[in-house]
Specification:
The complex is a heterodimer.
Chain A: H1 10-36, H2 40-43, H3 48-70, H4 78-106
Chain B: H1 2-27, H2 31-56, H3 60-85
Helix pairs in contact in B: 1-2, 2-3
The chains are: A mainly alpha, B mainly alpha.
């Protein structure tokens, strides 16, 4: 532990710890879902847990810890939260569109029935 | 003593998240599965760097995390465009 984080009050340590553990746990659950779900269109939902609540909770923990350790507002971590907030849906939409396109190309002319042809057995 | 323990727990959980996504990356039957796994890996690595920043009380980790967020987004979008059209820039 560095000296800047030594003299945090106890309630700040507890609050930051709770935020860190819950955020990491949500990210872990998202990755576990990514591993366990059967179809691609189920799997794409799981990692968004880490990209939304996981990122925000850990960014909030970082802002809180640095602000109270330095005694002044340290808010630049919110840039990461905002950036992920903007880019995660864009990435998801593009990936799903690519997946639909590839499924349709493999399944002939049934254009309006995305059936998740990329399932594992 | 609470905060280092909590950060160690968080680091273990995030490392397991990277491991699961890496298994999906190696095993995933299609290219889009691997792309989702890569996306999840870069978010988890960014969170690991943020936790290390809290642990060591240094600002440098934040900048690395921001850089990973920027480049990871660019890489995912380029790869999705490639899967969609077969080329990145049309």
């Amino acid at each position: 532990m560095s000296e800047t984080m030594q003299h945090l009050p106890l309630w700040v340590e507890i609050l930051v710890s709770v935020l860190v553990v819950v955020g990491a746990l949500l990210t872990f659950i998202g990755a576990y879902g990514l591993l366990r779900f059967r179809q691609f269109f189920q799997r794409i939902h799981a990692p968004t847990l880490g990209a939304t609540m996981g990122t925000w909770l850990i960014v909030a923990a970082s802002m809180l810890a640095f602000s109270l350790a330095y005694g002044r507002p340290v808010l630049h971590e919110i840039l990461i939260g905002l950036f992920i907030f903007i880019t995660a849906p864009v990435t998801s939409i593009l990936i799903v569109r690519a997946a639909l396109h590839r499924d349709r190309r493999h399944s002939g002319d049934e254009a309006d029935r995305p059936r998740g042809l990329t399932d594992e057995p | 003593m609470i905060l280092p323990t909590a950060i160690a727990v968080g680091l273990v959980l995030l490392a397991l998240a990277v491991l699961f996504a890496a298994i999906r990356l190696l095993r995933g039957p299609t290219a889009q599965d691997r792309l989702v796994a890569l996306d999840s890996i870069y978010v988890s690595c960014m969170l690991i760097l943020l936790l290390l920043g809290i642990r060591f009380g240094h600002h440098l980790y934040f900048e690395v995390a921001l850089l990973i967020a920027l480049l990871g987004f660019a890489g995912s979008v380029a790869m999705a465009k490639f899967l969609l059209r077969g080329e990145v820039i049309e």
